[in-house]
Amino acid sequence: MPPSRQATPTTIEPGPLPRGAPPRVERATPRMAELPRPVMGRVESLPAGSWARAHVHPWAQLSYAVEGVLLVRTATGSYLAPPERAVWVPAGLEHEVTTTARAEMRSLYVQPSAAQIGDAATPRIFQITPLVRELIIATCALPVNYEEAGSAGRLVAVLLDQLATLTPVALDLPWPSDARLLRVSLALQADPSDQRTLAEWGKEVGLSERSLARLYREQTGLSLGDWRRRLRLLLSLTPLAAGEKVSSVARDSGYSAVSAFIAAFSQEFGQTPTQMFNR
């Protein structure tokens, strides 16, 4: 349910779960008309599959999983944040949140006037520095009505300054709106290992190879090949976080060679699967 009187009716239907994700367990979202302070922290220990249904609130939100993987969906895209990344959701944007594995979540609710981070209308994924990680944890430990003129207020001010310096990373997956392209995208999400070519997909949905390629780039900013590659790598985060072997995840993601999967994963995320999940 919407957490605020300013919420609008939801338009996001619950999306398909990533491969290997557990069933959804609905969690409540805060019911407040406004924040008591410029920043409010929230600490949650969430089981795998925890899900907050589509909602909207008048403050921005930074969601950071100390452990686990966060999936944020909007009407136009999906955003996955593995360890050491966080999702920034602008104020007033409808979204749903799923934890695809057990997660230790730290959320910051931020008044729009307190911080301007990224595009005011689009979620972003940010790389979290060691300093910002500690500032998030410390802020989440503060009482709700912390003293703004004291040391707590100064801590929050430093946090807000540091948030403005974070580096965005491309861990979003824009979804096409055309029904024919959406049919292709959903089929690829259901089976990331599907190896059909652009021409074969075009024949499947009644488009020429050239038209399918053009529409994908127009609606997502990516070629179908690049969109499928990013989809495969983003979906691989869920089974990897759950402890599945890299070789099994590589095969299920459509890679015939584990080395090719690790190379693509490293290029996309800047880490190998083992480095990201400390195995």
Nutshell version of this structure?
This protein has 279 residues and is of the alpha+beta class. It has helices spanning 130-140, 151-163, 179-190, 198-205, 209-220, 224-241, 246-252, 258-269, 273-277, and strands at residues 25-26, 39-46, 50-55, 60-67, 70-73, 77-81, 85-89, 95-99, 103-110, 124-127, 167-169, 172-174.
Helix content: 25-40%
Beta percentage is: 15-25%
Strand count, sense and barrel status of the largest sheet are: 6 strands, mixed
Strand line-up in the sheet with most strands: 1-3-8-5-6-12
Number of extended strands: 12
Tally of separate helices = 9
The structural class is: alpha+beta
The H/E string reads EEEEEEEEEEHHEEHHHHHHH
Low-pLDDT stretches are 1-14
Radius of gyration in whole Å, from Cα? 19 Å
What's the pLDDT, averaged over the residues?
84
Describe what this molecule looks like in 3D.
With 279 residues, the chain is an alpha+beta fold. The protein has nine helices and twelve strands. It has helices at residues 130-140, 151-163, 179-190, 198-205, 209-220, 224-241, 246-252, 258-269, 273-277; strands at residues 25-26, 39-46, 50-55, 60-67, 70-73, 77-81, 85-89, 95-99, 103-110, 124-127, 167-169, 172-174. The strands form two sheets. Strands 1-3-8-5-6-12 form a six-stranded mixed beta sheet, with helices on one face. Strand 5 and strand 6 (77-81) form a beta hairpin. Helix 1 packs across helix 2 (151-163).
